[in-house]
Amino acid sequence: MKNQTIKLKCGHEVEVIAIDIRRTYGEILAGSPSFVDNFHVYENLKAPEQWGKRKTVMNQESFNLDLKHFKKYTVYLWLSSNKSIDDPFKKFDGSELVVVWAIDDLFSFSINSLIEEGIEGFDWESYAVNTSI
């Protein structure tokens, strides 16, 4: 079975390994988020624990600390490529990265459009890390 890939604008082809969508302020039981809450969310934007330790890059527009509130839901997208980054001696088997951004609504998109909008214009070579199998 051939895996589906997405071709980024930079020309790199990546595969979606996993996607996770969570409430951004899932730990707040009542009231409105404060700067302290935003800072806590910002500081804890890591790949979901069940994915293991992965390099994670956030969309700065989604998680700008100058915003009064972040959007309601946080999207975590684990991407992988069978092409390594800056690897002239071919020591690695590929590269990977988790990209994080926020959305307002769970029901107004398709998974394809969500992924395309989330990684549109993403520069894989600047952020991905090499992996070995």
Summarize this structure briefly.
The chain is of the alpha+beta class and 133 residues long. The protein is built from 3 helices and 6 strands, in the order E-E-H-E-E-E-H-H-E.
Report what the structure shows.
This protein has helices spanning 35-43, 111-119, 124-127; strands at residues 5-7, 13-23, 56-58, 73-81, 94-103, 129-131. Strands 1, 2, 3, 4, 5 and 6 form a six-stranded mixed β-sheet that branches. Helix content is 17%, strand content 29%. The model has no long low-confidence stretch (mean pLDDT 88). The protein has three helices and six strands. The protein is α+β, with helices and mostly antiparallel strands and 133 residues long. The longest helix has 9 residues, at 35-43.
Sequence stretches where pLDDT stays below 50 over 5 or more residues: none
Broad shape: elongated
Strand pairing plus helix content: what structural class?
alpha+beta
Please tally the β strands and state the result.
6
Tags for this model:
alpha+beta, 29% strand, 6 strands, 133 residues, elongated
